[in-house]
Amino acid sequence: MQRKSKLAFLRNQMMGVLIALLVIFAISAVMSPYFLTSYNMTVVARSLAFVGLITIGQSMLMILGELDLSLGVMAGLCGVVSGILMVNYGLNPWFAMFLSLCLGAALGCFNGLMVTSLQLHSLVLTIGTAGIFGGINLVLTKGVAITNIPKEVQFLGRGDFLGIPVPFVIMIVVLAVASWVILKTPFGRYIYAIGDNTPAARMLGIKVDRVRILVFTAAGTLAALAGLLMVTRLGTAQPSIGETWVLPPIAASVIGGVATTGGVGTPFGAILGAAIIGVIENIIVLFGVSPYWQGVVSGFIVVLAISFDSISRRYFRGNR
Amino acid sequence: MAFLEVEDLGRDFPGVRALNDVSLKLELGRVHVLAGENGAGKSTLVKLVTGAYRPSRGRILIDGQDVDQHPELHRYVAYVPQELNLFPNLSVAENLFLPYDRAKLGGATVNRREIERAAQEYLDRYAITAAPRDLVRDISVPEQQLLQIARASTNHDMKVLFLDEPTSSLTSTEIERVMTVIRGFRDSDHAIVFISHKIEEVLEIGDEYTVLRNGEKVADGLIAKIDEPGLIRAMSGAEIAIDQRFRPDPPPEGAPEEVILDVQGLSGHGFENVSFRLKRGEILGFAGLLGAGRSEVMQSIFGYMKATAGTVALNGKDFPLGDTSRSVKAGLLYLSEERKLHGILPQLSVRENIGISILDQITGRLGISRRQERSRVHDIIKAYDIKVASMSQQISNLSGGNQQKTIIGRAMATEPVVLIFDEPTKGIDVRTKAEIYRIMKSLAERGVGILLVSSEMEELRKCANRIVAMYSGRITGSFDTATTSNETLVGAMFGSEKTNAA
């Protein structure tokens, strides 16, 4: 009985996404000889790592029933601040990175505190805070990138570990930890409970506000980490880092089975969703699709993916 | 000839046969009672006939034609669900007539004055006191329930009306209004299907009955030829002593009296200066009308709502209010009357719903132990006789009674000190009711303090040792159940202050 139900869990929550990913993978491999080359695979993996870190945080917030639209600009701001601390103030680069991570945590925590203490809608609040964080970024940099990031930290973004890009390894470790937290700890179970039915969670004695603030803080920290890794990857702290990391993580989460209304899904599913988007974007480039058309094609495929998901879900109604 | 016929109808869900081989005939001008315990298949049958589900087997004929080939026939069938299903931010008039074309009102534009005038007629007919332009969220729950029935009747094509527990949150005067409405429909040549767990109502209003059990029809016939025990026997398949008492036995003479919960001068939103003492081993009942402030008092003690004044002592120690997580840790639990809103985690499984309250007991260094969780949940499912296909089943797929038992089981798993039951048997069948009473009694006898809020006088008399009556936010009396007449109690519920034995 135990075995059967585990399989059922896989079938209903993840199997569809996994199969979709494999199918897209197979099609890509057949259609383009370059797709499966190790060089191309590291390209896909490396770019998945950055968006992936944001996706892990965003998916946990979505399971909680919240959303943070400022994670992208938060990543940019934290990346830029680390660059300023390292280059302009000559701080030890590791210490500078640590401070930026703390900044990410603080900004996430700020969002969480605003949402809980003033009972704001997180979607609307974070549209506002995204404006603030992005604005501070521009005030600090005047739109100019900070160059000469110390070589000693650049392997974080550029290096390989056993042939695998370091950022990807970091993302996988984070994913493993996040999955353990959300699936195996009481704290994780509380996230699902709150996302599913907040008044009932409060009635159960769950410290709803504390859980919320902590998840916002974690998501902010992960955003900062993504920003830092991008800085070390580029070797310069670009003010534009994170600009494109706002909506894809949300789409990835939905494709991966996370409900926008909360209570359902896993970070692992969301990463599979992000991988689907990543592979599609890659294959569009490999096919030499005109850059002007790339947005249309990838957007279309996202719409297709969630429609397929919704239809199959209705087909298996009542059987989560 | 029957207007609506159901022939050998069946519907399967993955792993469950929800309805099998049910036949039914509805005639115009008659009230047909659909009886059965929670999970017997009543809701499934209703959803099939109203077109919300498609049948797996069998067919439905309306006016002699197969609904499957003529889906437009569903327009003859109106359904009033048990849950309130209105638009809270729209006006009473708008709620009555939406969608406007169905009510044959207005063309491209709608004249507000016109629909309000039309609405007033309906409101008068149903004795609803709310004004047509009031927002639905501002009118009382009983009025909303009546409004739902009125809304169904604005469908001019309606020939068959399904009422699913239309009286579950009404008091006796309002129930009489609903009954009058039903008789009005019957006399104007409609077929009514009436679903209720209140046996007296069923016997009073019904002409024919059909009893479902475990998805199958087990009995049918004329109401005139069956009595209360007979109906209950058919529904439960067993003899249940309905007038059994479930009051905990008083502690032996001379045993020291222990106060578990001492509430003094508590005030808050909707109530004022409430004081009472809960003794070990007793069930303390709370009687009152809807809106008397009983739930508010309980939720404030529990910490879900804010108290503005007063003190609460738990086992002799001052207990700070306002934090549900502290209450739960101290063993003070509240089971809400709003099962859907405050109780279940709808998208999670039965296992997760129960497991959530015992996580600290089953979490090791490697995280939550799935094995321990399964075995604990398995024990609880067994102990409280919760009917599930598997513990991985989503809780919202369970019947109301089984959801309630899941929530009670979940609370029990934490070894509570004080348990507050707020309308624990709302919408629950006779047999499950008796089970819940038995659970409350045995808990009280084991020393758990029990507060029971109920709108059913029967329930309070059966279970509570003492009854506190509230009226409009104040306590109007405290009575020893055994020595108090119904009249005195009802008097207190309507505001006359009296007390025998504190």
From TrEMBL, chain A:
The keyword Acetylation does not apply. The chain crosses the membrane at residues 12-31, 43-64, 71-89, 95-115, 122-141, 161-183, 211-232, 244-261, 293-311. The lineage of its organism: Bacteria, Pseudomonadati, Pseudomonadota, Alphaproteobacteria, Rhodobacterales. It is found in: Cell membrane. This is Ribose transport system permease protein. It comes from Aliiruegeria lutimaris. GO terms for molecular function: transmembrane transporter activity. Pfam families: BPD_transp_2. It is a multi-pass membrane protein. One of its GO terms (cellular component) is plasma membrane. It comes from the Bacteria. Keywords: Cell membrane, Membrane, Transmembrane, Transmembrane helix.
Automatic annotation (TrEMBL), chain B:
It comes from Aliiruegeria lutimaris. InterPro entries: AAA+_ATPase (IPR003593), ABC_carbohydrate_import_ATPase (IPR050107), ABC_transporter-like_ATP-bd (IPR003439), P-loop_NTPase (IPR027417). Residues 4-497 form the ABC transporter domain. This is Monosaccharide ABC transporter ATP-binding protein, CUT2 family. Keywords: ATP-binding, Nucleotide-binding, Repeat, Sugar transport, Transport. It comes from the Bacteria. GO terms for molecular function: ATP binding; ATP hydrolysis activity. It holds the Pfam family ABC_tran. PANTHER family: CARBOHYDRATE TRANSPORT ATP-BINDING PROTEIN MG119-RELATED (PTHR43790), GALACTOFURANOSE TRANSPORTER ATP-BINDING PROTEIN YTFR (PTHR43790:SF9). Gene3D superfamilies: P-loop containing nucleotide triphosphate hydrolases (3.40.50.300).
